[in-house]
Design goal:
Keywords: Membrane, Transmembrane, Transmembrane helix. It holds the Pfam family GST_C_2. InterPro entries: Glutathione-S-Trfase_C-like, Glutathione-S-Trfase_C_sf. It is a single chain. This protein is an all-alpha fold. It has a domain of 62 residues. Helices cover 78% and strands 0% of the residues. The radius of gyration is 27 Å and the shape is elongated.
């Protein structure tokens, strides 16, 4: 098959950058298996593997997963910590109302079966 080429020929172009970023985002979201994993699209899989091996790619996007996680997790924990009393109170209220509705259902069911 010869030497591997990029989308627009023997050189890495902006088209490759665009596709590489899109593929990397899909992989980050856990969708790589759906679109090109497990041998479904072998050429796309080998293309992405070649892109990931490029030093420039590793330098720019290689640690983007760690960056996103370190940016998102502290905010998520802060929101959860701030809203914990409200979340706990709402959960307890729903549980109590659900339990009361279930007990009312059992009472009505027993009352209806006894009266016939």
């Amino acid at each position: 098959e010869g030497s591997p080429s990029w989308l627009c020929g023997d050189f890495f172009s902006m088209a490759d950058v665009s596709l590489a970023v899109t593929l990397h985002r899909l992989k980050f979201l856990g969708l790589s298996q759906r679109f090109w994993g497990e041998g479904t699209r072998v050429n796309l899989e080998t293309y992405y593997e070649r892109v990931v091996q490029r030093p420039a790619f590793r330098r720019v996007l290689g640690h983007v997963n760690n960056i996103l996680i370190s940016a998102v997790l502290p905010v998520a924990f802060k929101v959860a910590r701030k809203n914990a009393p409200m979340i706990l109170g709402t959960t307890m209220l729903i549980g109590v109302l659900g339990g009361a509705a279930y007990l009312a259902f059992l009472y009505m069911k027993r009352r209806l079966t006894v009266s016939f």
